[in-house]
Write a structure and sequence with these properties.
It is built from twelve helices and 18 strands. By secondary structure, it is of the alpha/beta class. Bound molecules: flavin-adenine dinucleotide.
Length: 391
Amino acid sequence: MGTILVSGASIAGPALAYWLQRNGFSVTVVEQAQALRGGGYPIDIRGTALDVVERMGIRPQLQAAHVDTHRLTFLDGDGATIASFAPQAIVGGEEGRDLEVRRGDLAVALHGATRDVVEYRFGDSIEVLDEDTDGVEVTFRSGLRRRFDLVIGADGLHSRTRALAFGPEEQFHRYLGYCFAGFTMPNTLGLSHEGLMWTVPGRAAAMYAVGDHPKMHGFLNFALREPPFAAFRDPTAQRDLVAAVFADDGWEIPAMVRAMRAADDLFFDVISQIHMPNWSRWRVALVGDAAYAPSFLTGQGSSLALVGAYVLAASLATAPDHTAAFAAYERDVRSFVELNQSLVSEGDALLFPTTADALARRDAMLRQGTATPQATGRPEHSAFTLPAFAA
Ligand SMILES: Cc1cc2nc3c(=O)[nH]c(=O)nc-3n(C[C@H](O)[C@H](O)[C@H](O)COP(=O)(O)OP(=O)(O)OC[C@H]3O[C@@H](n4cnc5c(N)ncnc54)[C@H](O)[C@@H]3O)c2cc1C
């Protein structure tokens, strides 16, 4: 069995590491952050991905971390209520079976299942990849050089592994026409297990209280024709851009903008997908957002990361060589991924209408909607059956 370097210790990386080491591979995970990041925004684990966490034996731990959001309330520009729902009614989940946990809680569970059997290198990253016929020579940012049989990029939407092995991100990046800023802020409204979603054409703000904490998550989301490339490397420019977009808005928006300016954990990004003709090249493959980010508008990024990691490991464990394994991984999981990516397309996000007409249509749908969660979830979430896997 071989040696495998995985770049990224969030969802896809540790899940892949788990299944690889169970099948006799020697795995190293490199993560650029200095330590594992806990907490964070809530994510859903649904459909086929639930089978992955069940087979890993971490469902009880995740169940204990279940956020259990009771209510999502949609507000108009003045803060008046349009409609209130159980969240499953909006995103098409299955009440009682789906899990909603903070992203960091899932990362901690995956790391906990692997940390004693997988080598983790925090605070480092891949600088150079040199492939030859029987291995990959890796130079790390720290200066360390090591040789691996295979390298897998699980390093997210802006994957460095992808850039090194496949070229610039632009060719694979599909911008959906929105940007967002996420940050923690004081829970001054006393929200508990609930979210508020305020919308005007082209702009949306959300407050999300995962429990009864004095802090909650704030999101400021807005439509923008072109991605704001200039702001990406400049946190001050990001804050100025978001503040300017929301400058004339009422309700709690001025307080949110102040909180965004003061936040030490501001996360600013485009809402985009990754579409690639191939997820592997020679001895390098990609998994999770690095290969096929669906965007958070689908709510399926973590679930696709878990399923892809499982199938990639199963393929490497059972195929005669890595070339056959990479081909099998892609053949098996691509249509499931594309089905879930197609849950949204450019500018059409149901949650974020960009015109007054689209907003009025959405609000009419919300008013007619029912607060009863769907019994079975969306078929796209479960449109793939995990292969049998011996280990
Ligand atoms: C606000 C928000 C809400 C979301 N809601 C949901 C939801 O409800 N349901 C859902 O399924 N998904 C949701 N997602 C998406 C989900 O978070 C991602 O799809 C998922 O985390 C992808 O996992 P990943 O492991 O592929 O990549 P990521 O989680 O992006 O992790 C990449 C990791 O690689 C590390 N890294 C990056 N560059 C390097 C480098 N050069 N070297 C080493 N390490 C590196 C990063 O630090 C990170 O730890 C949401 C995302 C956001 C932003």
